[in-house]
Amino acid sequence: METDKFQKEKEDRLSIISVKKAREAIGPETKRIESANWTELMLKQATSIANKVKADAILVNMETAADIVPFLKAEGKKFKVIVVTKSEIYQEKVAGLKCDTIMLPDVHLNRDGYFKFGFLAGISKGILSKGDILVCVGGQLEKGYMDTIMILKVGDESELVTFAEDSPFPENIKPDIFESLLTLVMEMAYEGREGKPIGCTFVLGDHEKVLQYSHQLVFNPFKGHPEDILHISKPEARETLKEFSSIDGAFIIRDDGVVLAAGRYLNAAYHGEPMPQGLGARHSSAAAITGVTDSVALVISESSGRVTIFRGGSIITTIEKATSPAHKPATIIEEE
């Protein structure tokens, strides 16, 4: 027994020595890259990918703690750089550099949400066009670093945005109008009204035909007021839209951003494919009105806070409501 015990101890010692020698032969162990330094690595990899696939643009979120200005200043890039940010400070920081800047709404979104907003605004502004190859790099902003790279072709069916035409937006809608409305809708979806979730529809563009295919459910609170105070860029108009968000019916907005009506019932009948699970009558009517008019519709789901965008009778994209790490989601019982 003693001999067996001695032999085992000897074998264990030899095993430890062998492992140590093997490690010395390989060299020092490779250290893991700390997450705080992932942003620089992700940007380098995104640049490498963009060059290899001959990408037209890189879309990058600037909300991380890392400084990406050196990346923006780097010479020799053969692609456009689109910076998305919530902060005016960051916007000023990149002013004068060769990049396009898109302001995000000041709400909490997940990775896809930030990508989708930047993607939509980029197409609306004409920065991106159908057929462009785009590399997106970003992450969860609260973590302070980037951890995601996505590559896609604008216009192809993807989880970000899908559209069959050259652009998902009517030609007569100005980019700043759509971007302003999308920002407002995202704020309303996230904040709700007095702490309660809301569900409502906004129809933008081709107003004369939209009005023909709809009728008032209630007195129109926007009728008879000067147009200069009814523009969606005006703080007063935005607050009024939020105030009336709980009434039934849709908001109708002219292509130049003037709010024409609230509480409008959309008469167009929907004959398309069944709506995805969880989307009800409000979404069907939005799809229907965009199928018979040259408009775009944005719908907030009361039950989930999801924003769905319609064009040509079909869903362009959906942006999910993300719960802030500091807040727990409210429990919703009623169904749409």
Largest sheet: 7 strands, mixed
Tell me the number of helical segments per DSSP (H or I, 4 or more residues long).
9
CATH fold title of the largest domain: YojJ-like (1
- Give the helix/strand class: alpha/beta
In what order do the strands lie side by side in the largest sheet?
7-9-8-6-10-11-12
Low-confidence stretches are 327-336
N-to-C order of helices and strands: HHEHEHEHEEHEHEHEEHEEE
Mean pLDDT: 81
Give the assembly state of these chains.
Answer: single chain
Total number of distinct structural domains: 2
Percent of residues in helices: 25-40%
At the first level of CATH, the class of the largest domain is Alpha Beta
Word description of this protein:
- This protein has 336 residues and is of the alpha/beta class.
- The chain has two domains: 35-153, Pyruvate Kinase, Chain: A, domain 1 (3-Layer(aba) Sandwich), CATH 3.40.1380.20; 175-319, YojJ-like (1.
- Helix content is 33%, strand content 19%.
- The protein contains nine helices and twelve strands.
- It has helices at 2-26, 38-52, 69-73, 88-93, 111-125, 175-191, 207-212, 235-243, 281-292; strands spanning 57-61, 80-85, 100-103, 133-138, 148-153, 200-204, 214-216, 250-253, 259-266, 296-300, 307-311, 314-319.
- The protein has a seven-stranded mixed sheet, with helices on both faces. Strands 3-2-1-4-5 form a five-stranded mixed sheet, with helices on both faces.
- The longest helix has 25 residues, at 2-26.
